[in-house]
Each structure stands twice: as C-alpha cells, then as structure tokens.
Amino acid sequence: MSLIQLDKVCKTYRTGNLEVPAVVDFTATIEAGEFTVLAGPSGSGKTTLLNLIGCLDQPSSGQVVLDGRNVATTPTRKLADFRLRHIGFIFQSYNLIPVLTALENAEFTLMLRGVPQQQRHQRVRELFALLGLEGLENRRPNDLSGGQQQRVAIARAIAAEPAVVLADEPTANLDSRASRELLELMHRLNREQRTTFVFSSHDPQVVDMARRVISLHDGRLADDRRREP
Amino acid sequence: MLILAWRNIWRNRRRTLITLAAIALSVTLVQAFHNLSYGVYQSMIAGGVRAGSGHLTIYRKGYVDSRDERLSWRRGDLAEQAAALPGVEAVLPRVYLPGMAQSSRESRGILLTGIDPRAERPINPFLKGLDDTRMIRSLSGRDALVGFRLLKELKLKPGRKFVVTVQNRSGDLASELFRVRGVITTGLKDVDGRLIMVGLKKAAAMAGIGGEIHELAIILDQPRRDRDVGPALEKLIHNRRQLVVIPWDRAMPNLANAIKLDYASQKFIFAIILLIVTIGVVNTQLMSVMERYREFGIILAVGATAGRLRLLVLTESLIIGLSAMLLGSALGSLATLYLSRVGIDLRSFVSESLEFGGVIFDPVLRAAWDFGYMTQIACYVVILSLLAALYPARKAGRIQPAEAMRKI
C-alpha cells in the first residue's frame, strides 16, 4: 500500500462570489522513502497540495489517503494526532515559535507527544549535532541566521521520526550555499533514515536534486518524472 | 506549555504590565476601601451597641416596635445569669420613660433613662469621659446627667436643680427633683436635646414599676460571639414567653439599614470596577490571540490539538490573573495596614461630629481586616481572568491551520 494516495483530488477556494480552483483532478501516489518535489510556478497549487497531504485542509472532492487513512472521514482531533505522529512540516519562513529557544522549538513536537524531558533533550542534541547546530541550543530564533533557523525547523520536523516530511519551499529564503547544504542534509536523512520527503519548490537546485518531480500547472498534474539515483 | 504561556505573556511587556497594573490596582482599591468601610461600620456598630441596644438585647415582646413604657418586665436573676455566659462582657439594665423636664425658666420634652452607673460607665462611650465628680453616684439618688443641648435649652448649669415629670403605670403624674451632676455630649442633635440619665431604681420608682426594666442590653467581647450567646440567651428565657432576644440590627434598624444601603452602593461600584477589569482582560487576550493567528496555525499544523491551544490561552490569562491578584492583595494589605493604623482624618474637613444612621462615629476613619472578603475578592479576580479568556481561547481553538498560515 502506498504511503500517500491522492485520487481525483480537487480543491476550490471561494473568494467572494468567485470560485478559484487551486487543485484540479489530481491523482498520484507517493511511496515510503521517496524524495519528491512538487514543481511549478507560483499559484500552480503546490502549497495547497502539501496542505491536503498534511491533513491541514480537506479536499473539495476526491480522496486523500495517508497510510490507509481517509483524511475526509477522520475527525479533526484524530487528524491532529496523526499529524503529530506521522507528519513533519518545514515551512518557507521557518515559523519557529519566537519565545522558545532553538532547543525548545526543536523538541516541541516531542513535548506534544508527552516524551519525557531527558529523552527529548537527548534526541534534539543528537539532531543538533547532525544538523550542525551544536552550541546554538539556547538561542532564540531572532538570534539565528536564516539557514540556522531552517535547520532548527528541520530538527523540529524530524525529531519525532515522522513517516513523511512535507516542506513548503524550504529554500526560498536562503542563499544558494545554505540551500545546497540544506538539500544535502535532507538527502542524507532520506538515505540514512528512510524518511519520505515531499517538497514544493520552483528552485531549479531543488528540482535537480529530486528523484521524482511532479510538475503542476494551474492546479493540474502536468508531468510526473522519476530519475534513477 | 507553562513556560510557553509565561513567555508569551511577556512578548508585549508594556501591554501585559498595563493589564497587570489595572487588575492589581482594582484588587487593591476594592480590598482597601472595603476594609476601610468595614472598619468604619465596625466602629459605628461598636459605638451604637455600647451606647444603645447592645449586641443582643432582651425586651418584652412588642417593645421594640411600640416603645410603650408599660411593656416593662421583672428581670429577676436574668442579668446575673446572662453575665455568666461565656463571651458576655457586660449586661446593662435600662429603663426608658418619656416625660417633661422643667427648670425655673424653661421646660422641655425629654427621655428619662434609668441606668446602672457602675455597669454602664466602662461600656457607654458617652460616659467614659466623665470623672467621678460628674458621674451619677447611686441607683436611687437625685443625680442626673443631662444632654448638652437640653442643658442649654433649660438654661441650667451643673449643680443646678430641675424637675422631671413622667406618667406612672397607673396613669398618674409623678414628679421628682434632680440635680445636674454631669453633662453628656453625644454629638447627636436629637439625643443631646432630649437625654436625661438617672439611677435605674429612681427611674423605675417614678414609673411605678418597682424592680422592672425595659431593656437588658448584652455587650459581647467579640461581635461574632452572638452566634453562641444568642441561643444561650434564648435558653435562659425559654420559660418566660413574654420576652424576646433581639439582635442589634433589629433593635437599631436605622443604623443597620444605613450600613446596608451604604454597603450596597459600594458593592455596585466594586462590581463596576471588576467589570471594567474583565473587559480589559478580554481585550488584551483577544488582541494577543489575533496577533498570533499565524503562529497558532503553525502550532496546530505541527500536531497540537485545539484543546491544547485553548489551554495555552487560558493558562496565560490565569498567570496574569494570579500575578495581579498576588500583587493587588499585597498592596491592598499594605493600604489596609496604613488605614488601620493611621486612618483618614476628616477633622480638618468637618467641624462637627459625624452622624450616620443615628450613631456618631470617629472622624478619623480607620480600616479593619476582613480576611474573608479579601480572599473572596482575590478568588473573584482569578475566576474573572479565566472567564475573560474563555472567548479568546474559543477563538484560538477555532483557527484553521491552513487558513492561518496563508495570512502574512
């Protein structure tokens, strides 16, 4: 069974009396361990599709099935729990909680899962070592560079060892060097920990590194290519 | 979550401090002014019961409403039995007779009050200032204490004689000659213009009621002892069905009603203060939630439930409420301490004595501790802070993560 199944998914937003289709008849499956990029210009439906995969939004029609669970028929509370246990999020603008330190931000999902403090700290320190964030544990987000903040966001996303990490244009606010380092890091996590990554991006650097590129145009599937590693 | 809540409330330091100060100040104001009123009321009640009815009073049924001097009663050993009860400080038998006082030049309507000078003197605030040379010497002598205004109106002086005429039980007029021994100044116009105090036996003899009295005022060492002493007195009079035990607020309805009315208006003001504070907290919390709309979306996206988010907002409000309550109570205690020791001196504002509900009170207003009420207000503030956060918390819990994250 595929990890992510999208079957004839449509998502329409209403702006006043106007209905704007964001995703139209999208069908695809993503297997566990894949490193996939949703590519396309702005407004092509990448973020909407990520939100649907991440159970943050419900499709207007069609089905989103995650790990055998139909998102449309799952209660909100259970969806929150599913997100907590199975999905990690990385956002374009990092979205760290400004009043928490780097370490506290990274351990946030573990804290929500009720993991004891000692275990949380141990896990986050391991990740900080892996992500090159050692020594920055007690800094607040405002005292970190963009690249460092995004790495803390990655630590938060993968701390609870989710089945899939969804990243919405994670390199959009980073320079090319920081972007490359970040992508290499995620590649390594994908290889070593078999974490499934689904990106949205129109950054050629990201698209080049992906093993599967799903192209979107005006909310429709335009192309789906796989590359050999 | 607690750390997050604590740090969140300090994000906008100025706003939090203003909110905190507003709540704390209202707690301080309400507690301090309640304690001041409580102290003033206590002092009025203390003055009233000592000069008037007592904390508890035994009357013959119907006397309180009619003040009919024919409703006297034989006290027997009831005064001694009542005095032996724990919590009783003094027992004051009294006789009241309306009558007429005549000097060689004027005559006036009076209220002749027969007292036991030995028992009355250490208790009654109007007699405390009189030394031995100005005090009634016996229960049946001709010494009289005359109200300050009455003395002037009768054009009398201490040492001068005057005649008092009353109607005795059989309807005949009875007159006696008295000598002014001392002058009483209560500050109450009506009392100072009508009061004459004489020995208890002399007054009873004039009325033709022998060893009977109209009132047995019971003074307690603590006002709250009335809960024990009241039932004990009821037991003592259970076989004398014509007698009743009346608490001070029924015996002195003017004072009790004046205090009730004054306190009700204060409560109304306190309620408005607390309402304004609650609206302030709602506003602060709502602004705080709306400012973090996107952030709450992120917290929900990473797996927090709406319930956790609601709890976070409620915790933030609880922290503000608790902190303000502690600060406000500390300041309220300091203000009460100052007001109880130094007080507010009104002597420079009022030239005459202050009357309230028919009782004179000290122009230096002093607070008294009412810990029960202080605790009550402290709890109200914490509960109100939580109630004020319910709507913002509900709002936070309804945030849709995808929609929130689209907001910039």
TrEMBL record, chain A:
GO CC annotations, alphabetized: membrane protein complex; plasma membrane
Keywords: ATP-binding, Nucleotide-binding, Transport
GO molecular function terms attached to this record: ATP binding; ATP hydrolysis activity; transmembrane transporter activity
Coiled coil: none
InterPro entries: AAA+_ATPase (IPR003593), ABC_transporter-like_ATP-bd (IPR003439), ABC_transporter-like_CS (IPR017871), ABC_transpr_LolD-like (IPR015854), MacB-like_ATP-bd (IPR017911), P-loop_NTPase (IPR027417)
Xref: CDD domains: ABC_MJ0796_LolCDE_FtsE
Occurrences of domain ABC transporter (ranges): 4-229
Pfam families, per the entry: ABC_tran (PF00005)
Domain of life: Bacteria
Classification via Gene3D superfamilies: P-loop containing nucleotide triphosphate hydrolases (3.40.50.300)
Signal peptide: none
DNA damage is among the record's keywords: no
Family classification: Belongs to the ABC transporter superfamily. Macrolide exporter (TC 3.A.1.122) family.
Family matches, as PANTHER family: ABC TRANSPORTER ABCH.1, IMPORT ATP-BINDING PROTEIN
Name the record gives this protein: Macrolide ABC transporter ATP-binding protein
